[in-house]
Amino acid sequence: MNAQLDLHGIAAGYDGHPLIEDLSMILAPGEIGCLLGASGSGKSTLLRAIAGLHPITQGSIKLGDLLLDNGSKYLAPEKRHIGLVFQDYALFPHMTALQNIRYGATEPVDDLIELVGLENFTDRLPHQLSGGQQQRVALARALAMRPQLILMDEPFSNLDANLRDELSEQTRQIIKKSNTMALVVSHDQYEAFAIADRIGVMHQGKLLQWDTPKTLVNSPNSIEVANFIGQALIAETQVIQGVAHSAYGEFNTAVDDGYYWLIIRPTQVNLNGTDLSVTINERRTTPAGIRLRVESAQGEINFDLHSPPKTDKLVFSLKGEPCLIKKF
Length: 328
What we know:
The chain is α+β, with helices and mostly antiparallel strands. It is built from eight helices and 20 strands. Strands 6-7-8-3-9-10 form a six-stranded mixed sheet, sandwiched between helices. A hairpin with a 2-residue loop joins β4 (58-63) and β5 (66-69). α5 runs parallel beside α6. The model has no long low-confidence stretch (mean pLDDT 92).
């Protein structure tokens, strides 16, 4: 169970239309990765290519020392040591939970049933199980094949929001305890951050950044990633002799002179400061705190703070060095 997943320069398409272009990434043994992006970004196509369900036209896909595909040499899906969990779980409706988990397994599955917490539900048919229980049956069935890699395509999309949060955490714990590598596809960044050790942001068939959740938030490598991940005030900024000039005000910085995108996350806002300001157009109470509708340089956006000011201005300084992305 110590193989890594290695994708190098892969491309894939359909009828001459490119769906994935020059994509490279490595998923280390024991890691859970997540491909995150909007519909049509190529994330599900990439998952299908790794599973052997969609051909690649260039590059290579390797799982440890095993070459899965390089555009000319192709290994059949059943020989790839990969387990699949589909969006609709694809359980056999006439089989009990235990029979579904045992299907195709060559070893006892008692440990897996205990791992996913289904000891009291093994004799139930799929329609007698909740959505969360069905999801755990599908995961246990995939793990029963003792794969080196689990692929999960939007595994929580059919569940309500509260259950998605709960199941993503449970699924992470189950996969970690099974010592199996996993790659998940999602369009929900909260789900991605809850389950993954490493997240890849995809856009129009390209992998914009493949990194840890913390790095994606604090050090996005492009304005597209910064816009997609989390909440942020974003403004064009010119740095002249160590001073950054933005629509929000001025502050000192150590970067070279030039034009940048300024990215400000809620966690970087110091309400005791007076360097920067933005107009508050609306405020609403949410379970996470107070949500402000603020007048950003890129239009109105939501911005969550636990203790915002009572005036119509958010006046602040920055905590630590700000994130500045070079424009040109």
